[in-house]
Each structure stands twice: as structure tokens, then as C-alpha cells.
Specification:
Strand order of the largest sheet: 1-8-7-6-5-4-3-2
CATH class: Alpha Beta
Shape: globular
CATH architecture: Alpha-Beta Barrel
CATH superfamily: Aldolase class I
Structural class: alpha/beta
Number of domains: 1
Oligomer: single chain
Order of helices and strands: EHEHEHEHEEHEHEHH
Number of helices: 8
Largest sheet: 8 strands, parallel
Number of strands: 8
Strand content: 15-25%
Radius of gyration: 16 Å
CATH topology: TIM Barrel
């Protein structure tokens, strides 16, 4: 299982130490939730934080844009160090074009689906996507509880990708715990985003190890 700890839950006053901890851990990606206060009712961080973390790690930065008109910033996120750039299905009028642009710049292209968006929304872009991100909470805030109906949706996304012969990995973000992670994997997930579970743990690297070993 690929683990992508979410910087949203890190201690921002000690960000370098938090990234050093991740560098020494089994985490393969470092996840960024970029929130604009419009698409979601919250603001997070932008290019300076991404660039700072990029200077402190060699691990791929997995950037999830929870924002309107993400196509305006694709080049900027590439320049800031994003290796994976995921946009929300609900925020892109011309999703196919945006995914092509992301890939043309050399990044992996991801599509995120909000809890209310059906798995079938990926039908026309499945073969273009590198990541299919299933939001298992309503986006905008960390620390929310996993939406139980997400297990079925993860399975439906996996089935659609297989039917379309898509190379996309299934990533799950929201409410991941050590208790539900095995069931999330069994439903078809390849990658887990976890924030508060990791960064509030007394021994975060052990939590990452347990998730990665699933």
C-alpha cells in the first residue's frame, strides 16, 4: 500500500522536522491539500509551502487541488515541485484538456471525486488518468470520519478502471484509520492519504509502517 501523509495535519511551526520524519519513514509520497476558500469552505497553503517542502525531500509531492479553475495554475504547480497533480472532477469544465496539460508537463494526472459524485464520472477520462482519488469525506477539513458508503464506491472505481484498461491507481483520502484501512484496501485501494492519524500519533513512523504493510 502506497502511503501519502497529508501535510495539512502537520505541525506548521516545525514543518522541517515533520518532513524529516517523513523522509525517514516508509511513506512514498507527501500529500498536499490546496484549498482556495471557494471550492471548499477553507484555506490551506500555496506555492511557498510547497516549494519549501520540495527543498527538504526527494519524495514525490502529491498535490490535490481543491479549487476552482485549477487549469490556471498547472504550470505554477509543476514549477513548485508537484510530481502528481490531482484536480476535482466537479471543478473542471474541460477535464480532458486539463489532464492532457498536466501529463504534457511531465506530471502524473489525477482526478478526484467528491462523495456525491458517482464512480461513472471517470468513464471518459479513465485511460488518461494516472490517479483516481476517491474522497471518503467531504473535502475542506481534516479529521473527519470516513463515509461508510465509500467502500462500495472504491470498488466501483476499481471495476471501471479495470474495464477501461486504465493504469490509474486508486487513492483514498479522508477518515483513514488503522481499523478501516484493511477494508479500504480490500475494496480496491492502492494508495492511502492520512493526516491526523499520522501526525497526532506518538510514534507516527510506526503508524506509516502499519499502513504500508497492508
Amino acid at each position: 500500500m502506497l502511503i501519502a501523509p497529508s501535510i495539512l495535519s502537520a505541525d506548521m511551526a516545525n514543518l522541517k522536522a515533520e518532513v524529516d520524519m517523513l523522509n525517514a519513514s516508509a511513506a512514498e509520497w507527501i500529500h498536499f491539500d490546496i484549498m482556495d476558500g471557494v471550492f471548499v469552505p477553507n484555506l490551506s497553503f500555496g506555492f511557498p509551502v510547497l516549494e519549501a517542502v520540495r527543498r527538504c525531500t526527494g519524495k514525490p509531492l502529491d498535490v490535490h487541488l481543491m479549487m476552482v479553475q485549477p487549469e490556471r495554475y498547472v504550470e505554477r504547480f509543476k514549477a513548485a515541485g508537484a510530481a502528481v497533480l490531482t484536480v476535482q472532477y466537479e471543478a473542471c469544465t474541460h477535464l480532458h484538456r486539463v489532464l492532457e496539460h498536466i501529463k504534457k508537463l511531465g506530471m502524473k494526472a489525477g482526478v478526484a471525486l467528491n462523495p456525491h459524485t458517482p464512480a461513472g464520472a471517470l468513464e471518459e477520462v479513465a485511460q488518461l488518468a494516472d490517479v483516481a482519488l476517491v474522497m471518503s469525506v467531504n473535502p475542506g477539513f481534516g479529521g473527519q470520519a470516513f463515509i461508510e458508503s465509500s467502500y462500495g464506491k472504491i470498488s466501483r472505481v476499481r471495476e471501471l478502471l479495470l474495464k477501461k484498461n486504465s493504469p490509474a491507481a486508486v487513492e483514498v483520502d479522508g477518515g483513514v484509520t488503522l481499523a478501516n484501512a484493511p477494508q479500504i484496501k480490500a475494496a480496491g485501494a492502492d494508495a492511502l492519504v492520512a493526516g491526523s492519524l499520522i501526525f497526532t500519533a506518538p510514534r507516527p513512523q510506526e503508524v506509516i509502517d502499519k499502513l504500508a504493510a497492508l
